[in-house]
Design goal:
By secondary structure, the chain is of the alpha/beta class. It has 3 domains: 4-187 and 245-298 and 343-381, Rossmann fold (3-Layer(aba) Sandwich); 188-239, no CATH class; 306-337, no CATH class. 54% of the residues lie in helices and 13% in strands. The chain has helices at 16-21, 38-51, 66-70, 101-112, 115-122, 125-133, 137-156, 174-186, 189-195, 206-220, 222-233, 241-254, 268-283, 306-319, 323-352, 371-381; strands at 4-6, 12-14, 27-31, 55-60, 81-82, 93-98, 161-165, 258-264, 288-296, 358-362. Helix 10 crosses helix 11. It comes from Actinopolymorpha singaporensis. Residues 26-297 form the ArsA/GET3 Anion-transporting ATPase-like domain.
Length: 384
């Protein structure tokens, strides 16, 4: 099933409905920088897919909680919650959930170690800090949760489509980088040495490690260092599966059953970041399906040029006649100019990335705050 269409302006348009109807697609990842409508796009895709017959869960990592409000849910947490008000005539349904970073980390610990060792780890102050605020933990746990969701969906058939709203990022795809960073940190030689500085084959280094430990004690404090040593000593095989699990999920993201959508806005900075996302996804051999260009300006009377409108507005103003008409003409002229700038940005992007399909979404007159608003976004995504 084709996911492209030729638009009248020569750009390759993205067929959103073809993507949502493709049952071989099991994961859609919405990625992009902050403030471009990524969360709203993920929610709108979830609503449209469910009403076209898919069994959908939307996982958001955005802490702003806008998804819950738009879907009429009192709150979102780590448990999938059914969205009411979805048209289920085609057999679909929609659940939504928000990543709970620490709870997901705790679940990893409980699932991979004995109850006794899990208690030691979960109560360790260093672990509490690591699981709550360590740089990259949120993105890593997003990968963990995605892997869990996908495995569960295959096991019980509860879902056939997972839509992921990734964390906003200004430094490429932290969502992809975090597992490597976190597993490398947990496997680092320093942490391993700290766990047993004078045992076994490390005895020859005990004097040197004593100096290092003494220095770290001065910098961190004895209790902090003890917490770190206790935490690392409890690792053993508990976190030995970190790298293996992240590699499995990473490989899953590279398969054809995953579709990446880069979400952007028609602004120079956002388009530059979108171009970087596109290039990075290609470098990582991720299946890039296309780009969603949100909040496009769509003037009503396109047959009246910007120059003509602004000229008429200026003439009326100078003559002191019809101030309302002059204001309307001036507003239309500015909108036409803005639309031209946005179209130029889109064309420049298409020229630099000719293989990337684009779905342009005209801006709504108001913010999205309910299911009807999400349906409207979905319809505009699909070119209706």
């Amino acid at each position: 099933m084709s996911r492209r269409r030729k638009t009248v302006d020569g750009l390759h348009g993205l067929e959103i409905d073809a993507l949502l109807d493709d049952r071989t697609v099991e994961i859609i990842v919405c990625c992009g920088s902050g403030g471009v409508g990524k969360t709203t796009t993920a929610a709108a895709l979830g609503v449209r897919a469910a009403e076209r017959g898919r069994q959908v869960v939307v996982l958001t990592i955005d802490p702003a909680r806008r998804l819950a409000q738009a879907m009429g849910l009192p709150e979102l947490d780590d448990t999938p919650r059914r969205v009411e008000g979805i048209d289920t005539k085609r057999g679909g349904h929609l659940d939504a959930m928000m990543l709970d970073m620490k709870r997901t980390f705790d679940q990893v610990v409980l699932a991979t170690t004995s109850p006794e060792k899990a208690k030691v780890i979960l109560e360790n102050p260093f672990y509490v800090a690591l699981s709550s605020s360590f740089a990259g933990t949120q993105e890593y746990m997003a990968m963990e949760k995605l892997g869990q969701l996908h495995a569960d969906a295959l096991a019980d058939g509860r879902y056939d489509l997972i839509i992921v709203d990734t964390p906003p990022s200004r430094s490429a795809l932290d969502f992809l980088d975090a597992p490597k960073r976190l597993s490398s940190f947990l496997d680092s030689r320093l942490l391993r040495l700290l766990s047993a500085p004078a045992r076994g084959p490390l005895k020859m280094f005990s004097a040197g490690m004593g100096l290092v430990t003494g220095m770290l004690t001065k910098l961190l404090g004895a209790q902090v260092l003890t917490d770190i040593q206790t935490f690392v000593a409890a690792l053993d095989t508990t976190f030995g599966g970190f790298r293996a699990r992240s590699e499995r999920t990473y490989a899953l993201l590279q398969e054809e059953r995953t579709a990446f959508l880069v979400v952007a806005a028609p602004e120079p900075d956002a388009m530059r970041e979108a171009a970087y996302f596109v290039e990075r996804l290609r470098d990582e051999r991720m299946p890039l399906t296309g780009m969603v260009l949100n909040r496009m300006t769509s003037p009503a009377a396109t047959h009246v040029s910007a120059e003509r409108s602004l000229s008429a507005a200026e003439a009326l103003t100078e003559a002191g006649r019809h101030p309302v008409a002059a204001a309307v003409l001036g507003l239309h002229g500015e909108r036409m100019r803005r639309a031209a700038r946005e179209h130029h940005l889109a064309e420049r992007f298409a020229s630099a990335h000719p293989g990337v399909a684009v779905a342009g979404v005209p801006a709504l007159s108001s913010d999205v705050h309910d299911l009807d608003g999400l349906r409207e976004i979905g319809a505009r995504l699909s070119g209706e």
